[in-house]
Fold this protein.
Amino acid sequence: MKVGIAISSYQTDKSAIDLIWTIISENWETDKIIVVESLGSGLIRKYIQEHHLEEKILYYNLESNIGSAGNLQKRLEVAYEHGLDYVLTLNHDAVIDKSIFDTLKKNASGSSAAAYYILKYFTKKKIFDLTGTKEPGLTRSFGPSARPNEQLIPTIWSSSNVALYATSPLKHGIKPDNSLWMGWEDYLYGLQLYKAGYEQYIVTETFTEDNYEFKEKKIAGTKIMLSDKPHWYYYYRGRNLLLITLYIEFGLVRTLRTFLRLNLEAIAILIGNLQNKPLTALYYFMTGITHGWLNKRGKWKLP
């Protein structure tokens, strides 16, 4: 079984280089390292050359920004083209060590599953994330405060940051959809794997911490945790979920859940007082929904 590691980067030289250094210095047992960045400064390439890592690392510096969805698609395509059976996909800021990589590989050995996701612990919400065991519902994330006892938990989707993907689905044309540009591409890819009959699991033997941007808000004497993303992020959150529901993987129940979700998202934006400009965030969100209705894809004017 050939296993690789694929790292994404967009103007994040230091963290990407630190991640490469960790993998090399700790001698992770990997057949190939893939690095895909957009509009790179050249520092990552220079690091690879100075440390004579050209045979170990496949490096791509793309001339345009293809977004997170395009980057994930490109990394999986490169892994498939170079004969890897599995590839660990990492964002530049992944919180990971060698034991996590070894645990994912051990569980994938001899299996026909298409994806193994590491269990995540949301440090700000103080829960273990099991969101992907269901389709997107009315909450952004849910899970228990104690680590689950099951070694493998079947799931529909999860984050591609610290995920071990099989490359076999690419033989049948199943791969991330780069037209989303960013946001919900992990959900769509997992959903399409699930519909095609592939198994996917959350591995709970170990876990990694996820410092997702949440903030606490007091409403009517009750404390709730709300997402705290940049304003433009809400454009893609609304647009891509609607694109998936209406044009890519249509389903009546999925559509009803999506419309409920979008309404609650709008309320959350207003009460969340995002960076003291909730109306700006709401404008981006509603623009995204409009473009979703119109089946517009790819990069918007922001970021």
Notes: The longest helix spans residues 252-272. The chain is about 35% helix and 20% strand.
